[in-house]
Design goal:
Blueprint lengths: L8 H17 L3 E3 L7 E7 L6 H11 L5 E5 L5 H9 L2 E4 L4 H13 L4 E4 L11 E2 L2 H9 L3 E7 L4 E8 L5 H12 L16 E2 L1
Helix pairs in contact: 1-2, 4-5
Length: 199
């Protein structure tokens, strides 16, 4: 995987303190701690606004996470794309979902330490279905899923728990939905954990 801002010690330290101070000044609370596991898929939900990206990055810095995240290819134009990659971005061609799952599994298998953020909703608009890629990446790589969240109602965010897959996707998703029940995004009308289905 390419080198990112998280691998640059001085900038990483400066960004960590900037993130901690900024979040505190605007009244946000950082919850949870960095997982002990070296490899895991991190899902971040709910995703309901453009504000989710900077808040998620600040939480990652504050918790000292070294992450890669996936974004649609249009977010990576020639010049800005280099910056987005430095911030840990991986451009995604949505027409090749199956290849994306396998290539990410391969990256996990080839790495001693790797964290990949996979947004299950795929969009900041109203959704009723989550994409299953995050589940099959974790299952294929044999790694747990970290349940990350941004709760704009409580002004709190972090990682709630590490979820070990059972192999029963229906049962696992019921547990994951339960975890996200009651968490409010920036635009809460776009997210209802209890009604989320898979596709």
């Amino acid at each position: 995987m390419q080198s990112t801002i998280f691998d640059t010690p001085l900038i990483n330290t400066l960004m960590r303190w900037f993130s901690i101070v900024t979040l505190r000044l605007i009244g946000w609370r950082i919850e949870g701690q960095a997982p002990a596991q070296q490899k895991y898929v991190l899902i971040a939900a709910p995703h309901t606004s453009n504000w989710d990206f900077p808040f998620t990055l600040m939480l990652c810095f504050a918790l000292r996470l070294r992450v890669y995240w996936m974004g649609k290819a249009s977010l990576f134009p020639p010049v800005l794309g280099a910056v987005m990659r430095w911030l840990g971005g991986i451009p995604v061609d949505r027409s090749k979902a199956g290849n994306l799952v396998q290539s990410t599994v391969d990256a996990f298998n080839a790495s001693q330490r790797l964290t990949v953020i996979v947004p299950p909703e795929g969009t900041r608009g109203k959704v009723t279905h989550w994409k299953t890629g995050f589940y099959y990446i974790a299952q294929g790589a044999g790694v747990p899923i970290a349940l990350g969240y941004l709760d704009f109602k409580r002004k709190a965010g972090g990682i709630g728990k590490m979820f070990q897959l059972s192999g029963d996707i229906a049962a696992d998703m019921a547990d994951i939905r339960q975890f996200y029940s009651g968490i409010s995004g920036k635009n809460p009308q776009h997210f209802d954990a209890g009604n989320i289905q898979l596709k």
